Amino acid sequence: MSKSRKPGRPAKPVPQPARQRLPLLAGIALAVVLVAAGAYWWSQPRQPDPRAAFQKLQGRWQRTDAGYVIDIRSVDTSGKMSAAYFNPRPINVARSEASLDGQTARVFIELRDVNYPGSTYTLTYDPRDDGLKGMYFQAVARETFAVSFTRMKP
């Protein structure tokens, strides 16, 4: 007499051989590795994108204590800057460049003209008030002054 199942009762599960469980275990292991790799990548510090920071430097800036104007026409991602300086007439800009210190954009301008034999501006962009702040080295007097610039409205 053969044994038969009782109606309504499910059959007992048949254990799977180990090799049939391998694809499932491999999939779980792969998922764990991918999650760990993603978490590691996400936790790494990122280099800031200079395009956005440098774009904020473009424009005309007037010194708050006088009529001096810096006109930053363009800044590329390497920091090469096209700038002009006026007092109120144009003064030759010998060198101008932008750089990033973390998320902070910095500006350096060197003037070489009559009465400006190597005077420099070293400025930092302040996003709170959309201004440039820093130091002006007046080469003739060999003095350094704290200065700030505000963005001129177009």
What is the structure about, briefly put?
This protein is an alpha+beta fold and 154 residues long. 21% of the residues lie in helices and 44% in strands.
Question: Could you characterize what this model shows?
Answer:
There is one protein chain. The protein is an alpha+beta fold and 154 residues long. It has 2 domains: 15-44; 50-151, Avidin-like (Lipocalin, Beta Barrel), CATH 2.40.128. The protein is built from 2 helices and 9 strands, in the order ααβββββββββ. It has a 9-stranded antiparallel sheet with strand order 4-3-2-1-9-8-7-6-5. A hairpin with a 5-residue loop joins strand 2 (69-75) and strand 3 (81-86). The mean pLDDT is 87.
Comma- or semicolon-separated keywords:
Lipocalin, 154 residues, 9-stranded antiparallel sheet, alpha+beta, 44% strand
Task: Summarize the helices and strands and which ones pair or pack.
Elements: H1 18-43, H2 50-55, E1 59-63, E2 69-75, E3 81-86, E4 90-91, E5 93-101, E6 104-113, E7 116-126, E8 131-138, E9 143-151
Antiparallel strand pairs: 1-2, 1-9, 2-3, 3-4, 5-6, 6-7, 7-8, 8-9
User: Based on helices, strands and strand pairing, what is the structural class?
Assistant: alpha+beta
* Total domain units: 2
| Count of helix runs | 2
Give the overall form.
rod-shaped
What is the helix fraction of residues, given as a range?
10-25%
Distance between the termini: 101 Å
Mean pLDDT across the residues is 87
Q: Let me know the CATH homologous superfamily of the largest domain.
A: Avidin-like
The CATH topology of the largest domain comes to: Lipocalin
Indicate the CATH class of the largest domain: Mainly Beta
Strand runs, count: 9
Q: What is the helix/strand order?
A: HHEEEEEEEEE
Taking pLDDT < 50 over at least 5 consecutive residues as the criterion, the unreliable ranges are none
CATH architecture of the largest domain: Beta Barrel
- Rg is 33 Å
How would a crystallographer describe the biggest sheet?
9 strands, antiparallel
